[in-house]
Write a structure and sequence with these properties.
Elements: H1 32-46, E1 53-55, E2 61-63, H2 67-83, E3 86-89, E4 93-99, E5 102-107, E6 110-113, E7 119-125, E8 130-139, E9 145-156, H3 159-164, H4 169-186, H5 190-194, H6 198-216, E10 220-231, H7 237-306, H8 308-324, E11 330-333, E12 340-343, H9 345-358, H10 363-390
Antiparallel strand pairs: 1-2, 3-6, 4-5, 4-7, 8-9, 9-10, 11-12
Helix pairs in contact: 4-6, 7-8
Length: 391
């Protein structure tokens, strides 16, 4: 039956669970206080208790707040408070937990829970590479001004020290970088800073900077120091460019001289070795020839002792043959007269060569030359014998 139809015992029912007014007249919707009291009673029944009722002066029944209602509200607040304590730490992060303002622990990646309002959790990225740059003018060891620009790459290695030990770690790193840079550059010469000493300069700055970071307990780790540029001040840059150009020319000339030396020294050594070997060969040749001459002389001496006249004549003829073979003309002194006979041996040999070239027979000329030569030799021999006899 409908909610507004008469029910048992002559009472009407309404959707609020209450009875209609006596006398069956419709008085409008139920009272809000009554509906609230019904709801409170249901909550009290849920917690196993019955609500206390106070009778008002108007004759209505109104429930009063109880400790169970407060407990229910506290349970809801407790659930919400516990839910707020869950958090997640990423793989590249670490979480620093402060309990009532005091350091408690460092949390690793994963899902964690800490009581809210009691613990304060701060996440720190420990894998991100941070960068700081610095550029400044400074004095070198040889009292020159040089401008150096560098960049420092670093990460957070200790989240606890990074958050608690130093108020501004990044600012501290920048100031320590300036200090380390000035210390290292102040102990180096300008030429080294501007040229080949830049790599060593970066290594020294990195080592000194990491030492300062560890001493200050900033929780930072220096990965690399890059010297971006080193230059003279802009006011004197042109003069420095000229100096650098002159040094480059000096180095180029040295390299060219070294290349020339590398080319000429081996050649000279090779030439000296060749001359030395030629001298050694000549020495061996002279020694061998001298030994051969000595051996030949020994053999000739043996033959001379056997037949002195024959050997003497043979030696004379061989000597004359050697002499006259290189002469183009022979002048013969006639014994007992003032006339001298000239034998044009050069023309005779030239005619013989021409006849041999034209295909003529050269046997007659050859025999004639041999005959003339023999006669000249015979006359010279006779003249020499006569001279020796007269002496």
């Amino acid at each position: 039956m409908a909610w507004n139809e008469p029910g048992n015992n002559g009472k009407d029912q309404d959707p609020w669970g209450g009875n209609r007014r006596p006398n069956g007249q419709d008085q409008g919707p139920p009272d809000l206080d009554e509906a609230l009291g019904k709801l409170i009673e249901k909550f009290n029944g849920l917690f196993g208790g019955s609500g206390n009722k106070n009778t008002s002066g108007s004759g209505g029944n109104t429930p009063a707040p109880t400790g169970k209602i407060i407990g229910f509200g506290a349970a809801i607040v407790l659930v919400l408070w516990a839910g707020m304590g869950f958090y997640t730490v990423d793989q590249q992060e670490r979480a620093v937990v402060l309990r009532l303002g005091k350091f408690s622990e460092t949390v690793q990646p994963g899902l964690h829970w800490n009581p809210p309002l009691v613990d304060n959790v701060t996440k720190v990225n420990v894998t991100a590479v941070r960068n700081v740059e610095n550029r400044a003018l400074m004095l070198t060891e040889d009292e020159n001004i040089v401008e150096v620009g560098l960049s420092v790459q670093y990460i957070v290695s200790n989240p606890k020290d990074f958050l608690l030990e130093v108020r501004e770690p990044d600012s501290s790193l920048l100031q320590a970088t300036q200090s380390a840079l000035r210390h290292v550059v102040g102990g180096s010469e300008m030429h080294s800073v501007l040229t080949e000493g830049r790599a060593l300069l970066a290594v020294d700055i990195e080592r000194r900077l990491q030492s300062l970071m560890s001493e200050y307990r900033t929780g930072l780790e220096v990965i690399k120091v890059n010297i971006e540029n080193t230059a003279a001040p802009s006011q004197v840059q042109d003069a420095f460019d000229d100096v650098i150009k002159a040094r480059e020319d000096e180095q180029r000339v040295k390299n060219e001289a070294q290349a020339y030396a590398n080319g000429i020294v081996p050649e000279s050594r090779g030439r000296a070795q060749r001359v030395s070997e030629e001298a050694q060969a000549y020495r061996e040749q002279v020694v061998a020839r001298a030994e051969g001459e000595a051996t030949r002389f020994t053999k000739l001496l043996t033959e001379y002792q056997k037949a002195p006249e024959v050997t003497r004549e043979r030696l004379y003829l061989v000597a004359m043959e050697d002499v006259l073979s290189n002469a183009s003309k022979v002048i013969v002194d006639v014994e007992g007269g003032n006339n001298m006979m000239v034998l044009p041996l050069d023309q005779i040999m030239q005619n013989q060569s021409m006849r041999a070239a034209t295909g003529a027979s050269g046997r007659g000329s050859s025999s004639m030359v041999d005959e003339i030569t023999n006669r000249v030799i015979q006359q010279l021999t006779q003249g020499g014998s006569a001279s020796r006899e007269s002496r």
